[in-house]
Amino acid sequence: MARYFFDTRDNDRVFADDVGIELPSFDRVKIEATRSLAELALDVLPGSYHRCLGVDVRNEANQLILSTELAFEAREDGEHAQIC
User: Fold this and answer.
1) Where exactly are the structural domains of the chain?
2) How far is it, in rounded angstroms, from Cα 8 to Cα 15?
3) On the CB side of 40, how many CA atoms lie within 13 Å of its CA?
4) What's the predicted TM-score (pTM) here?
5) In DSSP terms, which residues pair with 23 in a beta bridge?
6) How many CA atoms lie within 13 A of 68 on its CB side?
7) 23 vs 44: CA distance, rounded Å
8) What pLDDT, in 10s, does the model give residues 20-77?
9) Residue 15, strand partner residues
């Protein structure tokens, strides 16, 4: 199995994964990235008004193979939210 590294983004901050995990396929990589992004959102979105979150996945050769992003904006003035 190959090792993949899941770096997280929270607005302008990037947190590099220096451990990684072994996964058997790209489908499993996508599932893990999706779960990681959802867990990050559960941790940081309550109480937030504007956040851009992401999970970027690198392979063992340090190549970016998948990038995910979630934009969140809460507005109290009745206006439509604007995406990042």
Assistant:
1) 2-73
2) 5
3) 25
4) 0.87
5) 2
6) 21
7) 26
8) 999 999 999 999 999 999 999 999 999 898 999 999 999 999 999 999 999 998 887 7
9) 8
